[in-house]
Amino acid sequence: MRLDHLSFAAGPGGLEATSERLSDLLGEPFRDGGVHPRFGTRNRVLPLRDRTYLEVVEVLDHPASDKAPFGQAVRARSELGGGWMGWVVAVDDITELEQRLGRESVNGNRHRPDGSELRWKQLGVKGLQSDPQLPFFVEWRSERGDHPSSGASGEISFASLEIAGDPERVSEWLGQPVERPLEDVKVDWVAPNGTPGVLAVQFQTATGMVRI
To answer: pTM value?
Structure first.
């Protein structure tokens, strides 16, 4: 179990404008990630160090976005002006979580501009919807070299997360101490009685620390 990526919902300007704004802050361009047909969304991706990445995601005018929890979550965050939507943990075997949480994972896929297909299973987006401090889970089904972090420059990494919430609640959700999947990233837990969720992320970049 490890930190895999963070999701940032596009703001009023849409996917391109949001990606360009973050790119200007971080100093590297995002890549076109393609469409998630099952979820009614599309994304742009910035590969980072340590097999992690940042995605900017936008909801599409598509029936799937109204039915799929992920599409619903993206739409809700974008309608609030966009911003941090959630954090995502990668696991080797998602069936263990299915059994423990009593939920079934769903298949995810997207076709990238080069024609390759990225496949995974995910679980827990409804948990994120009801309590945004909680991560959701992915089990990658594609080859390791196809992970969205592939091709990272090595100049940018997650340095710290600021999450409004309760680490004990998150540890209960994970089934292990929250420090384990976040062992390489510092987390500041703030406002345990406030509105939960990711408040800010600090990145180590080629030109120093950047807080978004």
So the answer is: 0.94
